[in-house]
Amino acid sequence: MKNIIFIAPPAAGKGTQAVMVSSKYNIPHISTGDILRNSAKEDSERGRYIANEISNGRFVSSDIMLELITERLQQSDCDNGYILDGFPRNLEQAEQYEVILNKLNRELGYVIVLDIDKEVAKSRIVGRVSCPKCGSVFNENIDAAKPKQAGICDNCGTELVKRSDDNAETFDGRFQTYLEKTQPLIDYYEKKNVLYHVNSDLGKENTFEQIEKIIVSSL
Fold it and tell me: Does the annotation count 14 as an active-site position?
């Protein structure tokens, strides 16, 4: 099984697809957000630094991020492949990531871009609601993802809430930032002939089917 990097704009379903692929193929889903949150709990100089950066809404330095990624990839559950979610974020990190791979004698694998129409993505963001108790996520704008009872979690009956940044104005800014920051990364991997595009407009099952075709084609 090859390693997978997912690249996607907001609301394209990157996290959902990573979980589905991880479950189907029994490879770890490595989320940089999870790594950082876990490291922030450590009683160490590095842990305190990460906790401070997160609490102040700043990005952790690339050096620390690369250090954490290296440590995670050295764990035995990564020996048969893994999914990277949230890394690399830019061209510099992509180049440094390949240095890590060379040291660990690992292949780059697949880079899968989840493409989505901006208006489809915006509808997903604006309609998204979640349960503060069990974490379940629903969407008021998508029939298949609506809660059975408006505003109430299907799983535990708790009142659903909307994140303050799940609005059209914030989304427009995030989407534009994604386009500007990510295009050089996409171009970089395209030149290496490891890039695959998947249309994620039509829902998670359709998106997963497209990803499976990419994976199965080289097994």
Answer: yes
